[in-house]
Amino acid sequence: MDASIRERQPGAGGLDPATPLFDAIPPALAGLRIALVHDWLTGMRGGEKCLEVLCRAFPKALLYTLIHRKGSTSPAIESMAIRTSPLQRAPGVFRYYRQLLPLMPAAAATWRLKNVDLVVSLSHCVAKSVRVPAGVPHVCYCFTPMRYAWQGRDAYLESWSDRPIKRAVARSLLNRLQDWDRSTATRVSHFVAISETIRDRIAGSYHRESAIIPPPVDTAYYHPVPTTPREDFYLVVSALVPYKRVDQAVAACRRSGRRLIVIGAGPDRARLEAAAGPGTTFLGWQSDEAIRDHYRRCRALLFPGEEDFGIVPVEALGCGSPVIALRRGGAAETVPDACGRLYDAPTADALAAAIDAWEVEGRPHDPAFARAQAETFALPVFRRRLLGLLADVAASKDRHAGVPRPHIAAPGVAGRRRRDG
User: Is residue 412 part of a domain?
Assistant: First the structure.
């Protein structure tokens, strides 16, 4: 999913402890010994919002991860029985853990899962590689196949273009990572993708089919206030890094003299500010409250990047905001034309033309339809879909042979066994 542009404080956002659990656990999951696996726990971003739902559903599950920065996630996650890898003991690991990618497969191999009936991994790196006991179903909720090994490979190698020796070493490393990533996909019995985009990547990288369950968006928080008027500025909410293409939104608005507000932080900020016109304002990091307020007031959200899913456009739709987005990645699946405008070419000219055409047509937009579209990604919907799929897997007659379930019995049977024993 798209990188976080603002991490909520632990306990803020996501599921409030007072929030009802929406639906009961499906009967097929009751009594199962469940293990959850997540790449790392260092903040409360989109992936952790998905994990939080499972932690609330299965508070007695064991949770395996490479590293855990205590206090960095929500109370529901922090309260779990968390098992880490040897990387947890590396000095200063929370500052440079992303640089330890070559060591992560070996670290993940140290996870030892025993006495479980169902394993659920949430993976964009190594979590899906976990070894499970023979016959135990393993459902992988896949944010994307390992990015550096696949779709991010060429860009990474290009960054070493002026250092041929290091580039050759990096290519060899990425070749091994790609082979490893593909081979460990056989440890997954059921893949679940976050979008059609990721479903296609799973098919291309692993040659596997997958179901699609989009990640949750907190539509209870991101909701419209009908009395709030729309103002004359366009909005970008994004991490300020090159692949987000914020420079295209800046250029499109500078050329036409339109007002633009940019919310977000990142290493690209200085370059973007130098290229911006006087009508562009950079606000840096902002709270969720401020972001929600800008969603409600902007003329439209501009989304020029290509994301695996893209939570920001759906948050904006939840607030009734129009969205003008590149017709690629997750936004092509989540933003209907009735909610703004999609454009085809990833250029500033194409974005500017889309804004022009939308304005000439009178800025067509249906706020109620936008809100209804966002609600299809609400937290309760995500929970029902994911737990329903897990229940189907657990109850399937096509389960792998040999799944040990001696502790699960029909009602009354376990009691008779105890008395007879």
Answer: no
